Amino acid sequence: MKDESDQDIQRLFAVAGARRRPPEDMASRVHEATMEAWLALPDQIEPELPEREAWRTVMPFALAATLLLVTFIGWGILRQPAPVVSEVGQIAFASGAYTVRGSEHLVLPALGTGALINTSAQGRMLIYLTPVTHLRLGPDTSITLHNNGEIWLHAGRVYIDERGGAQVKVITPWGVGITDIGTRFEVRHENDTLEVAVREGAIDVALPSQTIGARAQAGTGVLLHITADMSVERNQLSTVDERWNWIQQSYPPFELNHGTVHDFVNWAAQETGLELRFENQLVEQQALTATTLRGPAIYATDLTKNQIAAILETTRSFRVLPGDEHVLVIGFAN
Amino acid sequence: MRHQQDIDLVRQVLGKNKAAFETFFETYFARLFRFCSTRIDDEGAVEDIVQETLIKALKSLHGYRGEAALFSWLCQICRHEISNHYRENGRNAPPGVSLDDSPEVRSALESLASEEATDALQQRTIERLVQLTLDHLPDRYAKVLEWKYVEGLSVDEISEQLGEGRIAVQSVLARARTAFRKAFSDLNLELSVSK
């Protein structure tokens, strides 16, 4: 029986052909290397589900673990286990001088549990805690990487960019803990002052007596000014405020060559704090597939919406559409 | 929206289930290869990047929470690896220039344009859009569509490949076509390539 209703798809596939397949020898090599990495994973690790579900899964094991703990507590006291040190991040970019201590067992750029990192007065650094959790350090900053979800800020400023759904906690010298809820935020402890700024998403700030929340929305972030006596002053802060400019100096330049328009506008929005929107899905898909860029590496320092628009104009296919100050809307060129 | 099927697969991969690992590799290796190939010409570099993406993904898999589709999550990692690749290669390239030198940058970017002439571009765009759509469909749907419309297999031959009866195959094909049309129409494109 002939299917008359599928002629549209037939014609489309006739033009497109088959999806490109990776060569078999490549597949075999990558399979071998990937399997080796998979076999080396520790046994019995579970995905980090959101809190409520994770507890439902973990509760029986927690009870069993408590019993075991009670049984073997004496043994635990008598025997000091050898320290287990593992990689918790990688330095992806650095400028100016810096020192790393407590991570000597690993070769830089790898950073281990407990690494103490200090940047100089001109120092900047970008650390990948995971491929989707990035940490930036400003000048004169000192931190300890407790693990890839917890950072102890001793002095200076850090910026967290978390896009993978994991939670990152920053502990400050006053014991104030800041936990993100899928977000981008900055913590500064400079000149005996603690400031927490949220650029996207939301955070919880745990003070000794209370936990307060802060959420950014529609181009307006929040700046919390916390004094030593734990009083909190709350102000609004634009997501494109000059305060954020330092983070652009902690990121390597963007390589235009072979990048897609999609890559470029994503990077530009990430660095400027603009909220990226495409006029419609067709624009987004074309940005992803139709045009690749050619040109030199560019720095985000002081990148503005007008400069982004100027670069897009050269594609002759895309442009920045008029919109709110904090939004970057991409559409087709006329 | 939680991606429960992806979460289940991740849990099984982390639980050292070999069949789950093979499913993970079979499902995502070729897709990442295509994702990366559209951004990098050098096949050797593509191999390194896809391999590194898969290895890093496995090491970070415990952090996957199902808030995005697993393929989208993998693409995010792959994008970072591609950026790293250009950054590392950039060491031998001419130094970057600041946007402060705007006229110079603008002039250097003048070469930036659509990749090919209109007809060829249209064909290439359609190729990429079809691939993109297929890569985002469930693997089973993408496979039956390719078997039927690219390789020209009959319903009986597909039935043999899947080990299922004719009626089941016709039903899968119908669902696959619907899913494909919906995904494609989401791109606001008309399902017609006739000029």
Short description:
Chain A has 334 residues and is an alpha+beta fold.
Would you give an account of this structure?
The complex is a heterodimer of chains A (334) and B (195). Chain A is α+β, with helices and mostly antiparallel strands and 334 residues long. Chain A has three domains: 29-80, no CATH class; 87-245, Sandwich (Jelly Rolls); 253-332, 3-Layer(bab) Sandwich (Phage tail protein beta-alpha-beta fold), CATH 3.55.50. Helix content of chain A is 26%, strand content 36%. Chain A has eight helices and 19 strands. Chain A has helices at residues 7-16, 24-39, 51-71, 73-78, 245-248, 261-272, 281-289, 305-313; strands at 87-95, 98-101, 110-112, 115-119, 124-130, 133-137, 142-147, 150-162, 169-171, 177-190, 193-206, 211-215, 220-226, 232-238, 254-255, 275-278, 297-298, 318-321, 327-332. The model of chain A is unreliable at 50-63 and 66-83 (pLDDT under 50). Chain B is mainly α and 195 residues long. Chain B has two domains: 4-92, Rna Polymerase Sigma Factor, Chain: A (Orthogonal Bundle); 116-185, Winged helix-like DNA-binding domain superfamily/Winged helix DNA-binding domain (Arc Repressor Mutant, subunit A). Chains A and B meet through helix 1, helix 2, strand 15, helix 7 and strand 17 of A and helix 1, helix 2, helix 3, helix 4 and helix 5 of B.
Helices and strands, with pairings:
The complex is a heterodimer of chains A (334) and B (195).
Chain A: H1 7-16, H2 24-39, H3 51-71, H4 73-78, E1 87-95, E2 98-101, E3 110-112, E4 115-119, E5 124-130, E6 133-137, E7 142-147, E8 150-162, E9 169-171, E10 177-190, E11 193-206, E12 211-215, E13 220-226, E14 232-238, H5 245-248, E15 254-255, H6 261-272, E16 275-278, H7 281-289, E17 297-298, H8 305-313, E18 318-321, E19 327-332
Parallel strand pairs in A: 8-9, 16-19
Antiparallel strand pairs in A: 1-3, 1-5, 2-4, 4-7, 5-6, 6-8, 7-8, 8-10, 9-10, 10-11, 11-12, 11-13, 13-14, 15-17, 18-19
Chain B: H1 4-14, H2 18-37, H3 43-60, H4 70-89, H5 102-108, H6 118-136, H7 139-149, H8 155-162, H9 166-185
Helix pairs in contact in B: 1-2, 2-3, 2-4, 3-4, 7-9, 8-9
